[in-house]
Design a protein that fits this description.
Elements: H1 3-28, E1 58-64, E2 71-79, E3 82-85, E4 91-92, H2 96-107, E5 111-115, H3 124-133, H4 142-146, E6 161-166, E7 172-181, E8 191-195, E9 202-206, H5 223-226, E10 247-262, E11 265-282, E12 290-299, E13 305-307, H6 319-330, E14 336-339, H7 342-349, H8 361-365, E15 369-372, E16 385-388, E17 392-397, E18 401-411, E19 414-423, H9 425-431, H10 435-456, E20 459-464, H11 465-471
Antiparallel strand pairs: 1-2, 1-6, 2-3, 3-4, 5-9, 6-7, 7-8, 8-9, 10-11, 10-17, 11-12, 12-13, 14-20, 15-16, 17-18, 18-19, 19-20
Amino acid sequence: MTPTRNHELLKSVFIGLAALVALVSWLALQPRLPNQTPREKVGKRIFDSFNDLSKMTRIELRGIDPETGELRELILTKDGQEWRLPSISNFPAENADRLSKVVAPLTQLSILDVVDETTKTLDSRKITEFHRECGLVNPANFDVEQSLDNHTETNTDKAALHVRIEGEGGETLFDLLIGKRAPESSITRDVRFVRLPNEEIVYTADFEGDSTQETDSAEFAEYPDRISFQPIDWIDRDLLRISRWDVLYLTVRDYNFTIQRDENEIKIADFQTSGIAVFKQTPDNSISRVWTLDRRLIQNTDGGWKEEKENLDPESADNESLNVLADQLAKLSIIDVRKKPTALAELFDTGSVGTQLAPLVGPLSDFGFTLMDHDPLLPERIEPILVGEGGTIELTMKTGVKISLLFGGKIGEKRAVLAYASYSRDALAASSEDRSEIEFLEPEAMQKATLKNSRFADWFYLIDETDFEKLRFKISDTLK
């Protein structure tokens, strides 16, 4: 056999061996469940001591943005009995349903199987590669791991979801990296690869915990889909929390203006108005309900206000447009919040929204709110009235709660909103002619107003500008 032929034969052998090694290596790196070791962990809860949700004081969620490859983080902290969001000025995390769907499955999370690939080698590169295939790269180390083996593509699906929960004094109650779906998954079972951040062993665990669930159930969701890194998704976005059927009076203060600053003086410019109207919703046996025009005020050319009394036609209220308005108000959705200065929040909390606001008109004007001379509906009260650039709508409820909703300036594609509540005895009187019944209901009504106002007091709310435009119309649009 010639030397050339020997060389060609050896070359073929080496190529074949290299291909075989590559094939074996590729198969070894596929996420699978070969040998179940250590067997004693199978069927046991991953965090046996995590069984009392009342002990939680802090929740940390971390992951990689699939579009940008950047680290995302959301933290919730407990203040007394209330969860809050530090990233948006400690706004309450009122969406209890989302919180429950994220935390509840973790209390019963058990090991289904143990993936022992990483226990058979001391090769850190192989361990890292296996973690990548299982989607278990710690998001905190994602940038470092991406540089290994000259990985140039984003590969965000290699990063895990990191859930960490603390108790009193920083005690770790739960700390887990959650990866891709495992082969045992189905349309009703969300089985995933998991590992502890400080360990290399990969396990599998079922995050649904209910294999009998209907396959088309709206309740079923893969665990990562229950997580949101958007703080707004953790709050109750329902701004007013009312039923439109409970509205007794709807007051529209239809005006708009712009706020101007001149040498530290705040002025109102370009003021326009079509007046003020008070509509009453009268219960009857019809599902449509009936609206009547209760009061109407129009501004004179000299800036004064005149109330129409002789020519007032109660039946001129347009039911359809007022029903649409009431429905939109009942569904008004928060898309962002801003914290008020402490001094301002304290005044709103006590219902001091008149003269006491004058020293703090600066922070108010930043969001499109200021004070006007007096309330045209209450000419006997010589006290400034708080107004916003986009007008005001007031809702007086049958329960005795009055909600004032002021629309301020435009911030990008959002509209600033101020809301505050007060007790209205007139509302209870309009709902019942029995004086003793009114006196009996009054303490509860006052408490409801206080609770609602305490929710509003600390915040400037932001709504979508398109939602604001739906609410903004001339009073003539509500009259036949």
